[in-house]
Amino acid sequence: MATPDHAAHKILATNRKAFRDYSVLDRIEAGIALVGTEVQSLRHSHANLTGSYAKVEHGSVWLQQMTIEAYEFGNRFNHNPTRPRRLLLHRREINKMTAQTEQKGLTIVPLSMYLKKGMVKVELGICKGKNVGDKRETLKRKTADLEAARAMRQR
Fold first, then answer.
1. What is the largest CA-CA distance in the chain?
2. Which of 9, 13, 46, 74 is a plausible cystine mate for 41, CB 3.0–4.6 Å?
């Protein structure tokens, strides 16, 4: 799947630690099943993706450990902030994700959450965990790019 064009979408939450801790191999856009006041809370950007992950169970994908704060103007029917949420994907995408997580030992991590044409979407990354050496290499590459850009500006 192609990565979404974030310039046309309102970004609700991002998982910046995912790019530090994982190497993203593939990206998939998924819908998410929400209840009542969750959408209102998301529109105010009261979501946290840090530490969350997706898990394939019984033929469907569930987003675990994601926090959507309770809607401040809600009533007694407010949602549970850390409940598991079902992701809406095609069967072939679920089968592909299942094969990659079971055979290759990869992880499914949410990278960002955004509004697209009024619908809440989640960008999932099929990721491989980085070890300490990989993190150092990424940091070296980033500092080299910054120094090169700085040198170009000074010329």
1. 62
2. 46
Give the CATH number of the domain where residue 101 resides: 2.40.280.10
Please tell me whether the overall predicted TM-score, pTM, comes out greater than 0.85 for this model: no
pLDDT over 70 at 99, yes or no = yes
Is residue 118 assigned to a domain?
yes
* Long-range residue pairs from 74-82, CB within 8 A, at least 24 positions apart, any chain: 74/36, 74/37, 74/40, 77/36, 77/37, 78/36, 78/37, 79/35, 79/36, 79/37, 79/38
Residue 12 φ/ψ, nearest 5 degrees: -95, -40
- Spatial contact of 73 and 66, defined as CB atoms under 8 Å apart: no
Structural domain tally of the chain?
A: 1
The string of pLDDT tens digits covering residues 78-90 is 778 889 999 999 9
Nearest to 29 by CA among 111, 86, 104, 105: 111
**Which domain covers residue 56, as residue numbers?**
8-130
Average pLDDT over residues 60-76: 87
Q: Is residue 72 part of a domain?
A: yes
In-domain check, residue 105: yes
Whether residue 144 is contained in a domain is answered as: no
